[in-house]
């Protein structure tokens, strides 16, 4: 009986332990399946939020890149030019610089102007039509479009100067690499699909080819974009899938897939060990079995709670992993995944708002900061100052020392700017070599002084590991509310002030009221100037030069005039600098040479033998092909070289004296006469003047117009005439408008005079008639 009872007790205990183990195994199996499913659903929910941040962050980067391009002055000038080749070249260069896969330039009305090579303009226009409609309503548009060769994420922004002169769209490929990047970030597969003709078309995916083909065979209704998590079987593998429309492109769905088989794989070994433990547990006490059950169930509950926290976006509470069993390993992996997702989200947000090279806030962050600063109250007498900075000759640093060295320079400039401003001021890098400083509160009268102090800091020698360089910088300064009370106006006017600082080489320039209108007029004129020759809006006028000794007309000066179809007569003092700035001055000079020599040939055919003087700009002296063009033009029109006088301003010669002297010798070698125009205003030395192979000095009209006996102007004019004669040069005085000035010039033995006292500039036929009358009157 005793042994039978003992056997029964042992058997009962064994049966109880086995039953408990089997029950424990069943509980673990069910709990594990539910936990993994819950975890996977949680990961999908987390992945959905990460997707939104991932897509939004990349879209913001794309939008910022597009905004940088749309705000780039050189690109605006290219768009404003209206020249197709110029616009296409600028678009290609800018797209390559920011790494864009697709780029399109549209006109203000949406007509296609330029795109990357190999693209179909018609397909691009059709694909961008919905974005263009949205951008006209909202000011910008961002969506996924199909150009026929794949999906692209496209950002569309207006190009303002400041009025709209076009639309620019920049995009990146929305394909397998895009999905693969998201897979690498979250571990969740992503597929991009849309319904076409009642079937699901998968455009891109991180799935393997078999699963991708299986996904394409799924009925579209089974993946309705309602953000519900559904089980799915793809090529024999189990997945949980979640579908939702891509933000801004409802026709395109993103399908997030988490593999249930991959998630359950770590638990296969765990189940085998539990079965082994169940066999051995028949010899172990009931208490050990209870402890084992408790040891298994509690970690699973903690993992489920942690998965729910991650699902809700709470990454603050760490996941504890105790022990070295499989569940602890899973808890550790889940903890690392939580930390990784939190770090990646933080990194994505930081990258979206900061410059990768210098670590400074980028344009978007600076604009947001400026808007918040403008909304804050300020004490009386204080203003918010915005400084736009641009390094001078930074391209030369890149070209000479390399882009790596240029990056070091930009990093050091960023550090120096941060050290030079107050803690509550913001320093941002806008792109390239352009920086911005926002001073929250500064006394109005002290703002220029602080800007100059900042400039002095940047001009200090920069010590780098490989060399020591000196930097220079131009700064445009605007104040709020003096120059505007919104961010867009202040940034535009800061750009204008920066341009004025670079143009005048003053270092610091404060925005001057009314420059907005001047800037807009200049942009319009630069664009129209390129079409002026083809539209026959340009013409030449000729002003005679009278030889005082013989009282005969020896030379005439060719003067360019522009009759704009809407603005009327545009003075040369306005459009010639614009031509030099836009690089169009070479075409203008060739036009003047061609027309002047053609007219000279016509006069010679009628018996009027005159020399014709033509003005050259400083940029013309840098044109190595100019002498060949002049000689070819002279031969075609059969004008003797001695009848051609090229007038070069003294200031233009002083920009690069050595190169100018070489160019003048090339021109002089062909028999052409050379004249220094506006003499007395260019600060040239006698040593430099002696080197130049010139034939004439032309006294600037500022010394002649107000000249009276005994005045300082008279002393300068008389000394210049004597200097020219002593050097064997002819001397011409321009701006002669009174008999008293003419009498003094005759007394000083000036060779030739020119001015309204004799005649204003005349057209070719009118000048011929005037010369006939003048010759008759003098006779």
Strand content: 15-25%
CATH C-level class of the domain at 522-778 is: Alpha Beta
How many H/I helical runs? 26
Radius of gyration: 40 Å
Instruction: Describe the strand arrangement of the main beta sheet, using strand numbers.
Output: 18-19-21-22-23-24-25-26
Mean pLDDT: 82
Instruction: Examine the coordinates and then state which fold CATH places here, giving the name of the CATH topology of the domain at 522-778.
Output: TIM Barrel
Major β-sheet annotation: 8 strands, mixed, barrel
How much helical structure, as a percent, in the residues? 40-55%
Shape assignment: elongated
CATH second-level architecture of the domain at 522-778: Alpha-Beta Barrel
Give the distance, in angstroms, between the N- and C-terminal Cα atoms. 164 Å
* DSSP E strands, number: 26
Low-confidence stretches: 1-6, 288-294
- Identify the quaternary structure here: single chain
Please, what is the CATH homologous superfamily of the domain at 522-778?
Answer: EAL domain
Content-based structural category: alpha+beta
Structure commentary:
Residues 382-513 form the GGDEF domain. This is Phosphodiesterase. This protein is of the alpha+beta class and 779 residues long. Among the domains are: 72-174, 2-Layer Sandwich (Beta-Lactamase); 363-511, 2-Layer Sandwich (Alpha-Beta Plaits), CATH 3.30.70.270; 522-778, Alpha-Beta Barrel (TIM Barrel), CATH 3.20.20. It is 52% helix and 22% strand. The chain has 26 helices and 26 strands. The strands form five sheets. It has an eight-stranded mixed barrel with strand order 18-19-21-22-23-24-25-26, surrounded by four helices. A five-stranded antiparallel β-sheet has the order 2-1-5-4-3, sandwiched between helices. Strands 7-6-10-9-8 form a five-stranded antiparallel β-sheet. A hairpin with a 3-residue loop joins strand 4 and strand 5 (164-173). The longest helix has 70 residues, at 2-71. The radius of gyration is 40 Å and the shape is elongated. It starts with a helix and ends with a helix.
């Amino acid at each position: 009986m005793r042994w039978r009872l003992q056997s029964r007790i042992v058997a009962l205990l064994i049966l109880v332990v086995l039953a408990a183990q089997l029950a424990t195994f069943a509980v673990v199996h069910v709990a594990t399946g539910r936990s993994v499913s819950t975890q996977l659903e949680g990961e999908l929910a987390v992945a959905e939020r990460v997707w939104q941040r991932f897509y939004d962050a990349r879209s913001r980067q794309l939008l910022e890149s597009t905004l940088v391009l749309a705000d780039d002055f050189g690109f605006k000038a290219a768009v404003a030019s209206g020249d197709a080749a110029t616009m296409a070249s600028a678009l290609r260069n800018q797209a390559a610089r920011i790494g864009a896969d697709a780029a399109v330039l549209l006109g203000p009305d949406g007509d296609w102007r330029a795109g990357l090579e190999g693209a179909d303009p018609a397909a691009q226009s059709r694909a961008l039509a919905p974005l263009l409609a949205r951008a006209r309503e909202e000011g910008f548009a961002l969506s996924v479009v199909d150009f026929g060769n794949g999906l692209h994420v496209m950002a569309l922004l207006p190009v303002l100067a400041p009025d709209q002169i076009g639309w620019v769209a920049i995009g990146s490929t929305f394909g397998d690499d895009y999905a693969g990047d998201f897979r690498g970030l979250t571990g969740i597969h992503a597929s991009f699909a849309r319904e076409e003709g009642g079937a699901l078309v998968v455009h891109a995916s991180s799935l393997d080819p078999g699963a991708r083909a299986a996904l394409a065979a799924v009925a579209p209704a089974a993946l309705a974009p309602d953000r519900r998590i559904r089980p799915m079987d793809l090529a024999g593998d189990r997945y949980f899938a979640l579908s939702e429309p891509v933000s801004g492109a409802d026709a395109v769905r993103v399908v997030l897939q988490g593999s249930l088989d991959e998630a359950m794989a770590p638990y296969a070994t765990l189940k085998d060990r539990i079965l082994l433990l169940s066999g051995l547990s028949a010899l172990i006490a009931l208490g050990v079995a209870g402890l084992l059950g408790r040891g298994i169930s509690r970690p699973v509950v903690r993992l489920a709670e942690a998965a729910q926290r991650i699902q809700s976006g709470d990454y603050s509470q760490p996941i504890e992993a105790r022990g070295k069993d499989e569940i602890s390993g899973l808890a550790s992996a889940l903890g690392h995944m939580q930390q990784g997702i939190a770090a990646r989200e933080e990194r994505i947000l930081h990258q979206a708002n900061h410059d990768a090279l210098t670590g400074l806030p980028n344009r978007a962050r600076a604009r947001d900061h400026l808007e918040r600063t403008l909304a804050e109250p300020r004490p009386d007498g204080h203003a918010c100052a915005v400084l736009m900075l641009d390094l001078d000759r930074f391209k030369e640093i890149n070209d000479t020392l390399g882009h790596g060295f240029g990056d070091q320079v930009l990093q050091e400039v960023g550090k120096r700017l941060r050290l030079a401003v107050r803690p509550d001021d913001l320093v941002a890098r806008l792109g390239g070599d352009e920086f911005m400083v926002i001073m929250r509160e500064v006394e109005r009268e002290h703002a220029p002084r602080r800007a100059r102090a900042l400039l002095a800091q940047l001009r200090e020698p920069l010590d780098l590991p490989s060399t020591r360089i000196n930097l220079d910088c131009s700064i445009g300064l605007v104040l709020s509310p003096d120059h505007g009370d919104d961010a867009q106006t202040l940034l535009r006017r800061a750009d204008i002030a920066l341009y004025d600082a670079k143009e005048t080489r003053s270092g610091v320039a404060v925005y001057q009221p009314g420059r907005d209108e001047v800037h807009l007029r200049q942009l319009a004129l630069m664009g129209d100037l390129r079409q002026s020759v083809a539209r026959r809006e340009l013409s030449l006028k000729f002003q005679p030069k009278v030889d005082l000794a013989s009282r005969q007309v020896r030379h005439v000066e060719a003067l360019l005039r522009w009759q704009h179809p809407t603005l009327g007569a545009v003075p040369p003092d306005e459009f010639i600098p614009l031509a030099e700035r836009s690089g169009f001055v070479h075409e203008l000079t060739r036009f003047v040479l061609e027309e002047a020599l053609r007219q000279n040939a016509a006069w010679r055919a009628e018996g009027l033998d005159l020399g014709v003087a033509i003005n050259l700009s400083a940029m013309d002296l840098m044109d190595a092909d100019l002498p060949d063009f002049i000689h070819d033009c002279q031969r075609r029109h059969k004008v003797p070289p001695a009848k051609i006088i090229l007038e070069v301003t003294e200031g233009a010669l002083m920009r690069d004296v050595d190169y100018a002297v070489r160019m003048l010798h090339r021109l002089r070698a062909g028999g052409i006469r050379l004249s220094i125009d506006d003499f007395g205003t260019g600060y040239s030395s006698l040593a430099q003047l002696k080197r130049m192979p010139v034939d004439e000095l032309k006294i600037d009209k500022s010394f002649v117009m107000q000249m009276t006996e005994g005045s300082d102007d008279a002393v300068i004019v008389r000394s210049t005439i004597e200097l020219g004669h002593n050097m064997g040069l002819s001397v011409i005085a321009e701006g002669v408008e009174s008999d008293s000035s003419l009498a003094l010039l005759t007394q000083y033995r000036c060779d030739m005079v020119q001015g309204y006292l004799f005649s204003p500039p005349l057209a070719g036929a009118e000048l011929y008639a005037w010369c006939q009358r003048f010759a008759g009157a003098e006779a």
